[in-house]
Each structure stands twice: as C-alpha cells, then as structure tokens.
UniProtKB/TrEMBL annotation:
InterPro entries: CHP02679 (IPR013495), CHP02679_N (IPR024466), DUF2399 (IPR024465)
Domain DUF2399 as annotated: residue spans: 280-430
Pfam families to which the protein is assigned, alphabetical: DUF2399, DUF3323
Protein's recorded name: Uncharacterized protein (TIGR02679 family)
Cited NCBIfam families: TIGR02679 family protein (TIGR02679)
Annotated source species: Mesorhizobium tianshanense
Annotated ranges, domain Conserved hypothetical protein CHP02679 N terminus: 41-262
C-alpha cells in the first residue's frame, strides 16, 4: 500500500526499516478500550532510526533516547494541517491497511453469537449452547461463522423436534427432515450437534444406549482372550446414542442374546422357551416386547458360552438369562433397560478379570443390577476350585464398585477366571424347574 500514499508520509513512517514501529503503534489503536480514545502512546525500546522518525513526526530535536511519549491529538492536528492524513491512525492505515478495533470486533461477534443462541427455540439445544463446551462445539462445527452456525442450529432443531422416534432409520430421518439421506452421517455438523444434545439430556440409570465409556473414558469390547480398548467417541457409542432416541443406525448389528425371557399374552410364542434367542435393536425399538418380569430375578452373564451351557442343561427350565456379550452395545443395553423398567431384579456375573469388572461396573451402575456370585468370597473360592479357562491376570486394576474387597483379592492372587469355568455353580441358580 505504500506506493499509494503521500510521499511525505512515506518518508516519515514508511519503509521496511520502520515496520516494527508501525506495528507497535497499530497495536495501541487495536487494543483501545471500547468507548475510549487513544490520547497518548508511549513507545519504548526504540532504535536510532525509529527515534529519529518519531522525533521528526513530533517536531522534536534529535537526541538519543529509547522511548518517546506521543500526544496523539497533537500529531493528528499536525498531520491534518500538512494535508498528509486526517490522523495518526489514518496515516498508519494508509501505509499498512485497516486497523481492527479488537474490542469493537469482539462486541460485534458477541452480538452475532448471542443472536444465534437466542434464536434457538429447542430447550435442549438452548441449554447446550449456554455452556462453554456447547458454544465451543458449535463454533468449531461452523468454523467460527455465525451465519453457518445459525443454519446448523436450525437443522439440529428440526431433527430434535422429531425425537424421540420409534425405530426410524437415521438415513430416513435425515431424508425426511433435512432432504439429504446423509445429512446425519457421522462427522456431519448437524449430527454432532444433535448427538451433543442427546447426551446432555440422557438419564444414565434408565439409558438404553448411553455411552459405553468406562471410568477411564475408554470403551471396552471383549472377546475370548482378547481385550480391545476403543475411543469413547466410537461409532458404537454414536449408534447407542441414536438408539436412545429411537433412531436406528446399523440396527441389525450385535443383536441381544437371551434365554427364556417371559413376555405377556400373545407375545408368549415370540421366542420359544428352551432355545437361545436373538433380538435386534430394530425389533426392540420398533416393537418393544411386553416383558413379564415384574418382581422376578433375571440373570445376566457376560459370555455367550455360558448361556449355551445353560440352555443345554436346563432348556425350558432355565431361569431368565441375558448375555451382554462383553461390554453391552445398543441392543443389549436396550434389553436391560426395558427389563429394569418392567420391574425385573437384574443379577450380573462376568469374567473375573479387569475388563470383566469394568463391564460389571457399567451394568450395575446404569441398570441397577446386583452382583450374582461376583464378589470377593466367590473369587477366592473359584481360585481354589477352578480347573480350566484360567490364566494370569494382567492389565491395570479396576475397582469393583459393588465390592472393594474383590479388587484387593484379585490383585493378591493375580489369577483371571473365565465365566465358563464357574458354570457348575452358576447353573445351580439357573434351575427354575
């Protein structure tokens, strides 16, 4: 911009050798109070060239000094009389472009974002955006663009008004509400905003599809001899959060496995007694069973093998049994929540290892389950009698929320015991003939 200014101004303040000085002067105007004028500027750490330039601007004698006090109003008047610029600020803008008044910019931005928040009519979204985390999320999703943020909020509100649903697929919901079947896919802004609202309003104890993060903020998926820790914001967690609102994402994945869960009336033949049965998240949400379990013990195990053993041993005479298949996913959590709401007394058993305790903490905390032969005394007895499916206990210890002595006993003996190794004692409780 320097080739467009008055040559006299260029000689006074222009050139690369004075760029640092101009930057410091500009910063003083940028940081001025919202309603306050800049009356004086004290500049320190001046080089010889910078001092000479400011002395000439101020009409002072040339003498070596590393600081100068500028009377801004006087300099403004001098520049106007000389016809060089209307003010010192104008001169600096002619040389290097517009100066942003930061306080004014912040005030305008606050007004824009306040308008975005105040324009939200959905109470859950409005509550979210009143928190630092919520407004921060919106700003990131909108890339700090208030207009884009307002559009995102409108889209999220349209979706939230349709919730809770009753087994609609996520793609159908997106198509119906937003006109794009992929508008609520993972990673899309509107989806992230809706999910944040759903998580904020969740009731953990009754949550059929709450986040599956453990106490350390990680999710746990366990298979025989294998433990995998996944990020808490995994696709499975997202699927479960949508499921809580009655929206199906990959609704046929990981169906819930159970045996002899009784239902009311005409549903009695929905799942034949004596044979392991599966229910998908799709069927559980679209046609919720009328579970006949009020006041009854419903046993919950971690491993499918134990359920198969129970079916072989007791068949139709087996007590109601549900399998979490490791850390329960959406369908398993939905079944457990439905059973708890129907009045069942859930009793949980799992592997005696650290991931098993994490899963136990989750099931007991979220679904009100009680331990089933899953305490310190049970573990000590199992260490003495279990002959198979045992291995050294590794990994980081986990505190059992229902029995602190269990963790101490496991740390002392350092033996992990698979649930199937305890089938003989567990089967005694499952005899319901």
């Amino acid at each position: 911009m320097s080739n467009q200014v008055d040559p006299r101004l260029q000689r006074l303040l222009g050139g690369d050798h004075l760029a640092s000085l101009r930057k410091r002067l500009r910063q003083r105007f940028e940081r001025a109070p919202l309603e306050g004028a800049v009356d004086h500027i004290r500049v320190v750490g001046l080089s010889a060239e910078e001092h000479a330039s400011l002395a000439a601007l101020l009409g002072r004698a040339q003498r070596r000094s590393k600081s100068l006090q500028i009377d801004v109003h006087r300099v403004d008047a001098d520049l106007r009389r000389a016809g060089i610029a209307t003010s010192l600020r104008d001169a600096l803008e002619k040389l290097d472009g517009p100066i942003l008044h930061l306080a004014g910019v912040r005030l305008r931005l606050q007004g824009l974002w306040s308008g975005v928040v105040n324009g939200c009519s959905h109470p859950g979204l409005a509550r979210l955006l009143l928190t630092p985390e919520g407004i921060g999320l919106l700003k990131r999703l909108a890339r700090q663009d208030a207009i884009a943020a307002a559009k995102l909020c409108r889209c999220a509100e349209e979706v939230l008004r349709r919730l809770p649903a009753k087994g609609i697929t996520r793609s159908q919901l997106a198509a119906d509400v937003l006109g794009d079947a992929h508008a609520l896919d993972n990673g899309r802004g509107a989806a992230a905003l809706v999910l944040a609202v759903l998580r904020q309003t969740a009731t953990p104890a009754l949550d059929a599809a709450a986040p599956i993060a453990d106490e350390d903020g990680e999710t746990v998926r366990k298979s025989r001899g294998d433990v995998v820790l996944e990020p808490a914001a995994s696709a499975e967690r997202i699927r479960e959060t949508w499921a809580r609102a009655g929206v199906l994402v990959n609704e046929l994945a990981r169906p819930a496995l159970f045996l002899n869960l009784p239902t009311n009336g005409t549903e009695s033949d929905r799942w034949p007694l004596g044979e392991p049965a599966y229910a998908s998240l799709r069927s559980l949400l679209r046609s919720p069973p009328r579970w006949d379990v009020a006041g009854r013990d419903v046993y919950v195990c971690e491993n499918p093998n134990l359920l198969a053993i129970a079916a072989d041993r007791w068949a139709a005479g087996c007590a109601p049994l549900v399998c979490t298949d490791g850390m329960p996913a959406a369908a398993q959590r939905c079944v457990l929540a439905q059973l708890a709401l129907a009045g069942a007394r859930l009793r949980y058993h799992g592997d005696f290892d650290w991931p098993g305790l994490r899963i136990g903490n989750q099931v007991m905390r979220e679904h009100g389950a009680e331990p089933w032969r899953f305490g310190a005394l049970d573990y000590i007895a199992a260490v003495r009698t279990a002959s198979g499916l045992t291995h050294p206990l590794g990994g980081n210890p986990v505190e059992a929320s229902w029995d602190g002595a269990l963790t101490l006993a496991m740390r002392e003996h350092r033996v992990a015991i698979a649930e199937e190794a305890l089938a003989a004692s567990l089967l005694q409780d499952l005899d319901d003939r």
